[in-house]
Batch of 2 targets.
Target 1
Amino acid sequence: MTSSLPDQLRTPRLTLRAPRPGDAPHLFAAYTQDSVVARYMTWRPQTLLSQTAAFIDYCIQGWSAGRSRPYLLVPHDNDDVPVGMLDARLQAHTIDIGYVLQRSRWGEGLMPEAIIAFSDMALALPEYFRVQATCDTENQASARTLEKSGFLREGRLERHTVLPNLSPEPRASYMYARCR
Ligand SMILES: CC(C)(COP(=O)(O)OP(=O)(O)OC[C@H]1O[C@@H](n2cnc3c(N)ncnc32)[C@H](O)[C@@H]1OP(=O)(O)O)[C@@H](O)C(=O)NCCC(=O)NCCS
């Protein structure tokens, strides 16, 4: 699928850019081994740098194949050291986002800043009408992040997602979206 999403996006404090192989050690140090960060994610905390390197490879492949745009979030003063990711999974007319930030940067409003900039940009493109995200019904920081980003809660999806750090059974999610 071709997409006119840009390769980079600048917000007041962040650049959203493509992942590259050299990012793996930084991401491993930043958050992929952090069990608190991973709590509501669909992956388990990583214990080996090679796991994060394989994930970065998968992201680079997804970007090349046009499947997704897994933007890394880097501060303007250090392009080499990502602090998080905003993954944009591309569907016809819709973009489904997922996001994560290293723990030491929580509470600064960085993720709403990235989500607002990304969804403003995406909804100004002719091919996209909807940016959506789901979050676990107990992930209050994520729900609040989406509400601060102008997303509306559309409903509750029962038995929607397995979060392996919490339960082997699928749990309920909220569906949020911004549309034009
Ligand atoms: C969710 C996440 C991306 C938020 O990013 P952030 O840049 O820290 O977001 P903000 O700085 O806007 O802070 C989050 C908001 O949630 C609120 N919040 C945080 N924890 C909360 C809790 N336990 N209960 C209620 N509100 C909470 C904060 O007070 C803040 O709202 P406020 O500005 O009105 O005070 C970050 O916490 C994170 O990476 N979490 C782990 C990964 C994750 O869960 N990703 C989402 C998967 S769906």
Target 2
Amino acid sequence: MGRMSSNYKRLTAVLMSAILMIFAAIPAFGQSLIRDTEIEETLRAYTDPILRAANLQSSSVDLFLVNDPSLNAFVTRGQNIFVHTGLILEAETPNQLKGVLAHEAAHIASGHLARRDQSNRSAYGSMLIAAGLGLAAILAGEGQAGAAILAGSTQFGTLDVLAHSRINEASADQAAANYLEITGQSGLGLVQFFEKFRYQEVLSNARRYPYFRGHPLSSDRIDKLREVTSESQFANVEDTDEEAFALIMAKAKLIGFIDAPQTVFSKYPETDSSKPGRYARAVAYYRAADLKNAVKTIDSLIEEEPENPYFHELKGQILYESGKGADAIEPMTEAVRLKPEAALLEIALAQALIEGGTSPQIDQSIDLLKSALRKENTNGFAWYLLSQSYDRKGEPALARYAIAEQSFAMGNYQRARSFAQRAQEGLREHKAQSRRASDIIVISGAQLASNKNRRR
Ligand SMILES: [Zn+2]
């Protein structure tokens, strides 16, 4: 198991108390949202063309990855698509995954989830922020480290089911087929996917995968979908090699992080020298506290693909989580150089630099975190790290301001207001932050008042 730094443990405690406050009233199912640039990018590459075909603005549709082995994908109000890791692992081809994503996009585009609930949006926004870096801290058996307890997609799934109807399902299938047609892709993946899980129909509802509770599969439904998709001129279009390989690598990474190391070693034995085999094993070695083999294995991948940012990222993560923060700086720097647009990579490098702790390193961490926050301005973890950097720099007011932002992003208005108030006095020379602190005080106060009224 990777060891967490004490900073991380402290952070976890901070996050968890905040998260538990947010969701105190909602039963938790032990699920967590996970963040991973590589997997997010893979999913986005599959999803964005479909969203455009659905006349949705891809930038306003958020994708969330839920660490849950059950097969599920669902949408919630506010244009959010949730994908379970179980769905990714069960999808045999990108085309199958795209089919499911297209179907979910159709529910959004058709307004099948018409009941808007603003609070949902902010709640999920908070979880995204609260989720930690990469997969390791979250999945490496460190309890709920870095992860937010998701308020149970099961519960939200149930809400979705209420909105689902056979008519909506049929129309979402047809729309999905249409989007895939517009993008020049085959719709047969969705048919294959449904065929594969047709056996689920004979199970009682409770024993079905959550996905098929909301999406009952009738022969009629599958037949209709097959009819329309097989007539398409793109029926036989296959995924590109890159797309197929990206899915294989995403699966290997997920398996490496999710399965017990022994299971990983039997799924990807030493004799398997393929890239996905080594990728999964590198993660499993590190989780089995075999740092030497973990580094050796990831180094072999870096040697073959020195331009792959995720190999450098994983190496940095392995080193950082194994208590070698200073050694993590070099690979993390390389990952950022290769993918400067990825906020999570900048945050990971900043984290390692903070552990380094020299004055130039702290300055660099501040620059990186500011850059990351320009891309993800409600990333609570980045705000938290920024507060640490300011603390080290002897800037207590800016540190408190950053904690106010972190708390605000996570919906902890009490704490946000209190830290913003405490920050304000020292922010006279920091006009922008001072204005923002005032806003946080006002908005948090209004939120707290309206929460009070709602409870009454
Ligand atoms: Zn559906």
